[in-house]
């Protein structure tokens, strides 16, 4: 049967060192997931389509970052090219393909995205090869880890959490306060009216898709030093970030953040107590949320 | 109002009572003819490849047509239908390997198990709105796939169920004989299609179409939408599991790919290829897909790119499946003939 190791979980929960280590590893999983999921939720909120190929942007972000790092040796440039490269890719993808299936049935939207999941995975296989790649930790972060209450915390983790949190704050404030943010929210609410007021909704749609792609690419680039790169790496992230948006509620940024952190912690602590059933725990949690609140923790009732 | 309509208005309204029996007899006749033709195929062409192709068509065809009951008839876009295909293959294979019960017993036990799993998963999924439904079914698919991968002691993990599935003869049928397996697959396919056709043409089938077109109205006239959706979800799962069992018998094993999400993606693609507006559309799609897949795999290792471009051509370019074109062409000709 499925092995359960509750002793390991209990002994970790009582030891501060283990608690710190597991919490930070849960936080980085959660933060990476948040960056992917928030793009997914943003695109859904404004464009009303689910970007099933969103995982591919995460994958491209990681590969772009690896190539840029190998060429220039600069980690900052690697992150930047991961984010900017996927933003451009997202813009092209939205304008050329996705814009043709708005308002059509969900089946068509899923099929177009499914086609691109297949195509993108093969493109990566063609360019970078089918084998596992690793980017390696940049030199600036090859320093001894920090010890907090006896728990091991690599400094890179702190950077990762910091960047993701900064992105969350900028995004949240930008949408709530800035003029562009208001236009985006208006377009999500009533695109016809926004368009009648002389605002180019096509541009907004492209921009939102590019932004979503960029956030996923940023997550991929940040993950590149700590994860192995392989074609198809985007898909499991897509599934998990979808679970996050389902738990948090489609279209809610705060929901995506909370959902991602919960999933991150479930994964890191679950791997102690239920080593082979960690993924199962995630699904179980999702089912519990769905049964009790079908629109997610922070989702609004949609008509 | 034309003269004709005005004339009709004067008479009391006659409600046509549709008798379902003649149509059922016609379907039965078509099914019998199809089975006889398929069963005679080995006499005419001895090619093993052709028979293999038909067996694979049976497995995929049952899977794709059952998906069409959800996608085309009910408007439930399941992106996790492949889990029942995989579940059927694995539970049938495991039952044959571990318990050694006769094949029919394992067959019905697998259906019973699929029924239970589908009721549980369906009860959670069918109340969700379309895109949520698509992704939550997908999530369940991934849960079953990851369970298969991690429960190595039982399922063999990523290596799949190896060592062959024992196929003891029963009632004079020996499924380890290629010809017997072929005829049995054809029989299952024809029976499965016939049953699904009866479901689609029954009052229940028309209730499903109504739910697809306007679920709110359906619930206002007293239909329990949740229960109807759950019923068709479970029924479709049973047929998908039958497809999975044919596949398990054919390859004498079961592999995690059977339960992977790409299986569901292929099912959706097949439906798109053939068209969801006709009952036999998915069957045509299955044949096209298998031919396409075999050709592409032979030509290039990057078959994802080729398949992707074909999907885009159908989804963005044509916007409908092959059978939809055929039906439209006939309808057009008929209206031209009427003048």
Sum up the overall morphology of chain A in one term: globular
| DSSP helical segment count of chain B | 15
The number of distinct β-strands of chain A equals 2
Please state the average pLDDT score of chain A: 84
**Radius of gyration computed on alpha carbons of chain A:** 20 Å
Count the beta strands of chain B.
0
Q: Could you spell the SSE succession of chain B in H and E letters? A: HHHHHHHHHHHHHHH
What percentage of the residues of chain A does DSSP assign to strands (E)?
under 5%
Annotation field: number of helices of chain A: 12
Give the amount of beta strand of chain B, in percent.
under 5%
Task: Give the oligomeric state of the chains in this entry, treating copies of one chain as homo and distinct chains as hetero.
Answer: heterodimer
Helix content of chain A: over 70%
Structural class of chain A: mainly alpha
**Major sheet of chain B:** none
Helix content of chain B: over 70%
The H/E string of chain A reads HHHHHEEHHHHHHH
Give an overview of the whole structure.
The complex is a heterodimer of chains A (303) and B (339). Chain A has a domain at 34-131 and 155-233. Chain A contains twelve helices and two strands. Chain A has helices spanning 6-14, 16-47, 54-72, 75-96, 106-128, 155-177, 179-189, 191-196, 201-223, 233-248, 253-273, 278-292, and strands spanning 146-148, 151-153. A two-stranded antiparallel ribbon of chain A has the order 1-2. In chain A, α6 crosses α7. The longest helix of chain A has 32 residues, at 16-47. Chain B has a domain at 22-35 and 49-260. Helices cover 76% and strands 0% of the residues of chain B. Chain B is built from 15 helices and no strands. In chain B, α3 packs parallel to α8 (178-201) and α4 (82-98) runs parallel beside α6 (130-150). Chain A binds chain B through residues 2, 44, 50, 97, 100-101, 106-108, 110-112, 114-119, 121-123, 125-126, 235, 239, 242-243, 246, 250, 276-277, 279-280, 283, 286-287, 290-291, 294, 302, and chain B through 71, 77, 79, 124, 127-132, 134-136, 138-140, 142-143, 146-147, 150-151, 261, 265, 268-269, 272, 276, 302-305, 307-309, 311-312, 314-316, 319.
